[in-house]
Amino acid sequence: MRTNGSDLELGRKKLDWARNHMPIHARLRELYAEKKPFQGLTVAVCSHLEAKTGVLIETLAAAGAHVVFTGSEPMSTQDDVVAALNEQPNITGYAKRGVSDEEFEALQLKALEHEPQLIIDDAAELTARMYAKRPELAEKVIGMCEQTTTGVHRLEAMQKQGILKFPAYAVNDTPMKHLFDNVHGTGESSIANFMVVTNLLIAGKRVVVAGFGYCGRGLARKLRSLGAKVIVTEVDPRKALQAHMEGFEVMSMEKAAPLGDFFLTATGNRDVIRKEHFERMKDGAVLANSGHFNVEISLKDLEELARSKREVRPGITEYTLVDGRRINVVAEGRLVNLTAPTSMGHPVEVMDQTFAMQFMAALHLLEHHKELKPGVYPVPDEVDRRVAEIKLETLGIEIDSLIESQKRYLEAWKYEDIKF
Ligand code: NAI
To answer: How far is ligand 1, taken at its centre, from the CA of residue 216, in Å?
Structure first.
């Protein structure tokens, strides 16, 4: 993919900045650059192509892999980073920002032509594409690692239908991923981008957060700390109760629709905000989405209700409804933290952890894939723990270790053993 020199220089600088703030990856390069455990293997990385993903790609290449990369979302690719990766040895990328759905698919298929043995995926995009378009290539794949909630759901659906032909590690479900990436990464970066794109104040606003899962919880708590009055909507009674007991107002979207100034969706579901909700919203409401697909806010319904639409600011579409009310949608309802014009994705340190989990899970899969039948598996706890230990080392934080009597106490169940 061609780019001009200044773009390339900017891409290199972005990679430098990310690399300098990703100490776990620096440690992984120290540990594996000589041993080269991925030597002779083609590893496909399908993800949001910006600098942090670039550092994962570089680290895999340093550990011996030939890395083929492609985008998991047409709007989240940064062409300058792609150019700065493509100039490096053992890295071949197929990704471009803003391509049509057809071009996006063609780029993914080009990456698949390299016949990867390992796939590091986001929302199971590349895996699903392979099974849909080039199913014969699955024979060569020894395993894959999945980063998102949505992707794990898709893989479980494939497993149920008997389609999945290799083991898949649900990296999303590890504590080192979802307790930090989904909560803090999505929370901070979605709000930061919402604020930059809209240039509007959060303090004092009524903000409706749809979904109180890991991402929604991070959003709701951080919005509250900025002074917003947060309303939570849910479909799971336990999550709704949890939100209630954390002091948030909980109600149906129907009730919340006329109250909200801003709306943020993080459900991984579709049509969460739809016709009957748009019909009740305030003039000037601003809507954004943090979930993986651009289906949480029903743009189809909004188009049907609108008499006109225009780009009112870069990254914001204003829909004027037949009765004159205006509803604003940020980044076309795509992931606000990754696809808005100013988006840089999650904070670097969070992705250092998440991508270290992907790297270490891929390495574990490489060593153990023969023991695993096709299916979706949790990443072994020792892998998660190891990444946490490396992170603590890089922070210079020491923690206690269990002494012998504590270990025995934690494993005991008989009264005399507990009272020894
Ligand atoms: P989760 O499963 O922990 O939470 C989703 C919550 O939404 C659940 O509590 C569920 O009950 C609720 N929900 C489902 N349908 C709903 C509806 N119609 N109305 C209200 N609530 C509803 O999932 P998690 O980890 O919070 O992820 C959510 C989405 O965010 C997924 O699509 C995931 O892939 C995506 N994600 C996005 C990131 C980003 O960078 N923007 C990073 C990580 C995940």
So the answer is: 7
